[in-house]
C-alpha cells in the first residue's frame, strides 16, 4: 500500500485516483475513489485531512502535502455536475434482508455496500429527514445539503428502502425487527446524540442552548427562514453570543450565530488554541469571519434577569500550569480573576453522550460504562447475534470518515456471515 | 405522508383526529406521545396519543388550537394528509395497583389524562376522575371518562355544569371527606398542576404531572425540553413527560415556555391572514 492510503480510514487508492486526475480523466478518478468511499464529495469537504490522509503524504515530509481532500472533492463534484455519475453494478439478489438503523454516514456506507452485494436493505431513521449529522449538524456553508441529497438519491436508485419517522427502541425494537419482521441482520449506526450540559448554575435560563438544539433548529428545521418555516430560533441579530467548547461543532455553531447576525460571536474555551479539537482549517475560517476567541477561560455560572433571560456568564481566567506526566500543560485558575462576560445567548458544545433508547430496550447488547456499544473491531459485531454497530455510537463523537469505515467493515462481516 | 381518517370537533377549538400510523398504533402505551409535522415547512409539535386501534392501524389525538401548528392541523379534514408523525415517544405512565387513584384533567389536559385513567383502571385501581373546564361547552370526553371511573366529577369555573369551582377544590373536598387517596395524576395548564401539587404535598400523596416543555426532536437529541426536577436536569421527551409533582420546578417551566412568544404570535397572525385570504378566494 502506498504511504498515503494508511491515513485514510477507508483505504482509498489515493495514488491511483490522483494519477487519473493528473491525466485529465476526472470521471475515472471519481469512480476510482467510489470503489472505496461512497461519499467523496462529502469527505472531501469535511474530513480532517491534516490528521488523516494528508498527514501520511510523503510530499508533506518536506513540503506542503498534496491537497488530497480538495482533489477528492473536485473529482466527485466534476462527476456529479457533468452528469456522468454511473450506478455501480448490483450483485444478484441473495434473498437476505438487512435493517440499518440511522441514516448518518455509518448507516449510509453500510447500506451502500450491502445493496451492491445483492442484499435487500431497509434504512430506518428517527427524524423526518435522512443524513444524520450531515443534514442536521454540519451547516450548509460547509456542506451544501444538495450534495447530501444527491448521494441519497444515488442510494435510492440502487434500491435502498428508506423509512423515516421510525425510532428504534420506541417505534420498533431490535428484537421485533429480527423476529417479527424477519431481518437477517441489523446494523446500528445511531450516532452520539445526547447533548452534555456543564452542570453549572443557570443552565436552564432562557437563551441557553445545546449546540445540537441550535444547529437542529437552524439546519434541519430551517429556522433561518422563519416565518416561512414555522420553527423559531433565538434571534441572534445584534446580540452577543458565546459558544462554550472548542470542537468542530463549536466552530459550526459560532459561525452560524455570526451569519445569523450576532454582533459579537465568541468561542469560550478553557484551554489554549493548541488543545482545541477542531480542525485547524475551521479555526482559521472562524477567525477570518470575525469570531472572537476567549481562550483559557472557564465558565462558572450563567446569570439572568427578572424574566429569566440570560444576561451574562461568570467566567474565571486560567493559565497553563506545569506540564503533567503526559507532557500536556493543564490549565489552572488564576486567583481573583472572575469577571462577567455580557452575553444574550449561550451555546453549550462540550460533546455528546449516547442515546439510551436502544440499550434500554435491547439489554443483551453489551455497552461500555459510557453507554457506547461494545463491538469486535474486526467485524463490528455486538454481543448480540446478527447485530452489528458502528460510527459514533461505538466510538463516541468522532469523524465522518471513521463512521463510514465502520459501516463498511460491518457490511463486509454481515455479508460473509449471511453467505457463508 | 400520513392520512387523516377522521377529524371531528369535541368542543370549540378542540378536535379529535384519527390518523393512519400502524406501527405506532401497535406499540403505544398510556402516557406516550407523537411528534407531528403538519406540512413541509412545519415545526415538530408533541401531541399525546389519546387512543389507538391496532387492528385498523390508527391512533387518535385530541388537539386544542393554540397557535399556527395546532390550528393548521385542526383545519385538516378526513382524507387530508400530514407530512410526518413519529412515535410512540416518552416513557409510558408507571401503572401499578396503587389503591385509590385520582386522575385530574384540566381543559385539553383531560384528553392527555384519559389514556392513563384507562390504564389505571385496567391496573386494578379504584379510579376517581375530576375533569375541569372553564364552562359547560368546553367539557370533553365526559362519557369516556365516566366509563372508566368508579367516581367521575366535572368542575366548571363558571358553575355552568357540575361542581362550581376548580379541580383543586374538588380534590380538597375528597381529601377532607376522609377518603384515603393513594395516587394522583394531574394534567392541565401549568398553574393547575402546580396548585394540585400544593394540595397533595401536606398529605404526602404520590402525585404525578405530565409536563409540556417546548420540544424539537422528541428523542433526547437536542436537550431543548429540559426541565428541573429536584435540582436535576431531565429531558422531558425521554425521561418524562410524567414527573413527581412535588419535585418539579414549575417556575422554570413556565419561564422556558415563553421562549418564543413573539415568534409564535407572528406565526399565528400570518396564518390567520392566509386563512382569511383563502376564504375570499
Ligand atoms: C456540528 C458538527 C460538525 C461536525 N463536523 C465534522 C467535520 O467537519 N468532519 C468530520 O469528519 N466529522 C465532523 N463531525 C462528526 C461527524 O459528523 C460524526 O462523527 C458522524 O456524523 C457520525 O456518523 P454516524 O453515522 O455514526 O452518526 P450520525 O451522523 O449522528 O447519524 C445517526 C443517525 O441515526 C439517527 N438515529 C438516532 N437514534 C435513532 C434510533 N433510535 N432509531 C433510528 N434512528 C436513529 C439519527 O437521527 C441520525 O440521523 C461533526 C459533528 C457535528 C455534530
Ligand atoms: C408531551 C406533550 C404532550 C402534549 N399533548 C397535547 C395534546 O394531546 N393536545 C394538545 O392540544 N396539546 C398537547 N401538547 C401541547 C402542544 O404541543 C402545544 O400546544 C403546541 O406545540 C403549540 O403549537 P402551536 O404552533 O399551535 O402554538 P404556539 O403559539 O406556537 O405555542 C403555544 C404554546 O405552546 C407551547 N409550544 C410551542 N411550540 C411547542 C413545541 N414545539 N413543543 C411543545 N410545546 C410548544 C409553548 O408553551 C407556547 O407558548 C403537548 C405538549 C407536550 C410537551
Ligand atoms: S476520505 Fe477523507 S481522509 Fe480519506 S482520503 Fe479522502 S479526504 Fe482523505
Ligand atoms: S383564519 Fe380561518 S382557518 Fe385560520 S383559524 Fe381562523 S377561521 Fe380557522
Ligand atoms: S425534545 Fe429534544 S431532547 Fe427532548
Ligand atoms: Mg408554534
Automatic annotation (TrEMBL), chain A:
<dbReference type="GO" id="GO:0051536">
    <property type="term" value="F:iron-sulfur cluster binding"/>
</dbReference>
<feature type="domain" description="Dihydroprymidine dehydrogenase">
    <location>
        <begin position="3"/>
        <end position="83"/>
    </location>
</feature>
<dbReference type="Pfam" id="PF07992">
    <property type="entry name" value="Pyr_redox_2"/>
</dbReference>
<dbReference type="Pfam" id="PF14691">
    <property type="entry name" value="Fer4_20"/>
</dbReference>
<dbReference type="InterPro" id="IPR036188">
    <property type="entry name" value="FAD/NAD-bd_sf"/>
</dbReference>
<dbReference type="InterPro" id="IPR028261">
    <property type="entry name" value="DPD_II"/>
</dbReference>
<dbReference type="InterPro" id="IPR006004">
    <property type="entry name" value="SudA-like"/>
</dbReference>
<feature type="domain" description="FAD/NAD(P)-binding">
    <location>
        <begin position="97"/>
        <end position="407"/>
    </location>
</feature>
<dbReference type="InterPro" id="IPR009051">
    <property type="entry name" value="Helical_ferredxn"/>
</dbReference>
<dbReference type="GO" id="GO:0016491">
    <property type="term" value="F:oxidoreductase activity"/>
</dbReference>
<dbReference type="InterPro" id="IPR023753">
    <property type="entry name" value="FAD/NAD-binding_dom"/>
</dbReference>
<protein>
    <submittedName>
        <fullName>Glutamate synthase (NADPH), homotetrameric</fullName>
    </submittedName>
</protein>
TrEMBL record, chain B:
<keyword id="KW-0001">2Fe-2S</keyword>
<keyword id="KW-0285">Flavoprotein</keyword>
<feature type="domain" description="FAD-binding FR-type">
    <location>
        <begin position="1"/>
        <end position="95"/>
    </location>
</feature>
<feature type="binding site">
    <location>
        <position position="237"/>
    </location>
    <ligand>
        <name>[2Fe-2S] cluster</name>
    </ligand>
</feature>
<feature type="binding site">
    <location>
        <begin position="62"/>
        <end position="64"/>
    </location>
    <ligand>
        <name>FAD</name>
    </ligand>
</feature>
<dbReference type="GO" id="GO:0051537">
    <property type="term" value="F:2 iron, 2 sulfur cluster binding"/>
</dbReference>
<dbReference type="InterPro" id="IPR017938">
    <property type="entry name" value="Riboflavin_synthase-like_b-brl"/>
</dbReference>
<dbReference type="InterPro" id="IPR019480">
    <property type="entry name" value="Dihydroorotate_DH_Fe-S-bd"/>
</dbReference>
<dbReference type="InterPro" id="IPR012165">
    <property type="entry name" value="Cyt_c3_hydrogenase_gsu"/>
</dbReference>
<dbReference type="Pfam" id="PF10418">
    <property type="entry name" value="DHODB_Fe-S_bind"/>
</dbReference>
<feature type="binding site">
    <location>
        <position position="225"/>
    </location>
    <ligand>
        <name>[2Fe-2S] cluster</name>
    </ligand>
</feature>
<protein>
    <submittedName>
        <fullName>Oxidoreductase FAD/NAD(P)-binding:Oxidoreductase FAD-binding region</fullName>
    </submittedName>
</protein>
<keyword id="KW-0274">FAD</keyword>
<feature type="binding site">
    <location>
        <position position="222"/>
    </location>
    <ligand>
        <name>[2Fe-2S] cluster</name>
    </ligand>
</feature>
<keyword id="KW-0411">Iron-sulfur</keyword>
<keyword id="KW-0408">Iron</keyword>
<keyword id="KW-0479">Metal-binding</keyword>
<dbReference type="GO" id="GO:0046872">
    <property type="term" value="F:metal ion binding"/>
</dbReference>
<dbReference type="GO" id="GO:0016491">
    <property type="term" value="F:oxidoreductase activity"/>
</dbReference>
<dbReference type="GO" id="GO:0006221">
    <property type="term" value="P:pyrimidine nucleotide biosynthetic process"/>
</dbReference>
<dbReference type="InterPro" id="IPR050353">
    <property type="entry name" value="PyrK_electron_transfer"/>
</dbReference>
<dbReference type="InterPro" id="IPR017927">
    <property type="entry name" value="FAD-bd_FR_type"/>
</dbReference>
Amino acid at each position: 500500500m502506498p504511504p498515503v492510503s494508511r491515513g485514510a480510514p477507508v483505504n482509498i487508492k489515493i495514488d491511483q485516483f490522483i494519477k487519473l486526475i493528473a491525466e485529465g480523466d476526472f470521471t475515472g478518478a471519481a469512480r476510482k475513489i467510489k470503489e472505496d468511499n461512497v461519499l467523496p464529495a462529502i469527505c472531501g469537504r469535511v474530513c480532517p485531512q491534516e490528521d488523516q490522509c494528508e498527514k501520511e503524504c510523503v510530499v508533506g515530509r518536506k513540503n506542503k502535502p498534496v491537497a488530497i481532500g480538495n482533489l477528492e472533492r473536485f473529482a466527485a463534484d466534476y462527476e456529479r455536475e457533468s452528469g456522468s455519475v454511473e450506478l455501480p453494478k448490483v450483485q444478484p439478489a441473495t434473498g437476505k434482508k438487512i435493517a440499518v438503523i440511522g441514516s448518518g454516514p455509518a448507516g449510509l456506507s453500510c447500506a451502500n455496500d450491502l445493496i451492491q452485494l445483492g442484499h435487500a436493505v431497509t434504512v430506518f431513521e428517527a427524524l423526518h429527514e435522512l443524513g444524520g449529522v450531515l443534514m442536521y449538524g454540519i451547516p450548509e456553508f460547509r456542506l451544501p445539503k444538495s450534495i447530501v441529497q444527491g448521494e441519497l438519491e444515488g442510494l435510492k436508485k440502487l434500491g435502498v428502502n428508506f423509512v423515516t419517522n421510525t425510532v428504534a427502541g420506541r417505534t420498533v425494537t431490535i428484537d421485533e425487527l429480527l423476529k417479527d419482521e424477519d431481518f437477517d441482520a441489523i446494523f446500528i449506526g445511531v450516532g452520539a446524540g445526547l447533548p452534555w450540559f456543564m452542570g453549572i448554575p443557570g443552565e436552564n435560563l432562557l437563551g441557553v442552548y445545546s449546540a445540537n438544539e441550535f444547529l437542529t433548529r437552524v439546519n434541519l428545521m430551517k429556522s433561518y427562514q422563519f416565518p416561512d418555516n414555522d420553527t423559531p430560533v433565538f434571534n441572534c441579530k445584534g446580540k452577543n453570543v458565546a459558544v462554550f467548547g472548542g470542537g468542530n461543532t463549536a466552530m459550526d455553531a459560532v459561525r452560524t450565530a455570526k451569519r445569523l447576525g450576532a454582533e459579537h460571536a465568541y468561542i469560550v474555551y478553557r484551554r489554549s488554541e493548541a488543545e482545541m479539537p477542531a480542525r485547524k482549517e475551521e479555526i482559521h475560517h472562524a477567525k477570518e469571519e470575525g469570531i472572537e476567541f476567549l481562550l483559557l477561560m472557564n465558565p462558572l455560572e450563567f446569570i439572568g434577569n427578572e424574566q429569566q433571560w440570560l444576561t451574562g456568564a461568570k467566567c474565571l481566567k486560567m493559565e497553563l500550569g506545569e506540564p503533567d506526566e503526559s507532557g500536556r500543560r493543564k490549565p489552572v485558575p488564576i486567583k481573583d480573576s472572575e469577571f462577567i462576560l455580557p452575553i444574550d445567548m449561550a451555546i453549550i458544545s462540550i460533546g455528546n453522550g449516547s442515546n439510551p433508547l436502544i440499550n434500554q430496550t435491547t439489554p443483551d447488547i453489551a455497552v461500555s460504562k459510557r453507554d457506547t456499544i461494545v463491538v469486535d473491531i474486526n467485524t463490528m459485531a455486538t454481543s448480540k447475534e446478527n447485530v452489528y454497530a458502528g460510527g459514533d455510537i461505538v466510538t463516541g463523537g468522532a469523524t465522518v470518515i471513521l463512521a463510514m469505515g465502520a459501516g463498511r467493515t460491518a457490511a463486509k462481516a454481515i455479508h460473509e456471515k449471511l453467505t457463508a | 405522508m400520513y392520512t387523516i381518517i377522521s377529524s371531528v370537533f369535541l368542543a370549540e377549538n378542540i378536535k379529535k383526529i384519527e390518523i393512519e400510523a400502524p406501527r405506532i398504533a401497535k406499540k403505544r402505551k398510556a402516557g406516550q406521545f407523537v411528534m407531528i409535522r403538519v406540512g413541509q415547512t412545519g415545526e415538530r409539535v408533541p401531541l399525546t396519543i389519546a387512543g389507538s386501534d391496532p387492528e385498523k392501524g390508527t391512533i387518535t389525538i385530541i388537539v386544542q388550537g393554540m397557535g399556527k401548528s395546532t390550528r393548521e392541523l385542526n383545519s385538516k379534514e378526513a382524507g387530508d394528509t400530514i407530512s410526518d408523525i413519529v412515535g410512540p415517544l416518552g416513557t409510558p405512565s408507571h401503572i401499578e395497583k396503587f389503591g385509590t387513584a385520582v386522575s385530574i384533567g384540566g381543559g385539553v389536559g383531560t384528553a392527555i389524562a384519559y389514556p392513563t385513567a384507562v390504564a389505571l383502571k385496567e391496573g386494578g385501581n379504584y379510579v376517581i376522575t375530576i375533569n375541569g373546564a372553564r364552562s359547560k361547552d368546553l367539557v370533553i370526553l365526559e362519557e369516556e371518562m365516566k366509563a372508566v371511573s368508579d367516581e367521575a366529577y366535572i368542575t366548571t369555573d363558571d358553575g355552568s355544569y357540575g361542581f362550581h369551582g376548580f379541580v383543586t377544590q374538588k380534590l380538597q373536598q375528597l381529601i377532607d371527606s376522609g377518603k384515603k387517596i393513594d395516587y394522583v395524576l394531574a394534567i392541565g395548564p401549568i398553574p393547575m398542576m402546580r396548585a394540585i401539587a400544593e394540595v397533595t404535598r401536606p398529605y404526602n400523596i404520590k402525585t404525578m404531572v405530565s409536563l409540556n416543555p417546548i420540544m424539537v426532536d422528541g428523542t433526547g437529541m437536542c436537550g431543548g425540553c429540559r426541565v428541573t426536577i429536584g435540582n436535576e436536569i431531565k429531558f422531558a421527551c425521554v425521561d418524562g413527560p410524567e414527573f413527581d409533582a412535588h419535585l418539579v420546578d414549575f417556575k422554570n417551566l413556565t419561564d422556558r415556555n415563553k421562549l418564543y412568544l413573539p415568534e409564535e404570535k407572528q406565526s399565528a397572525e400570518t396564518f390567520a391572514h392566509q386563512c382569511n385570504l383563502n376564504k375570499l378566494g
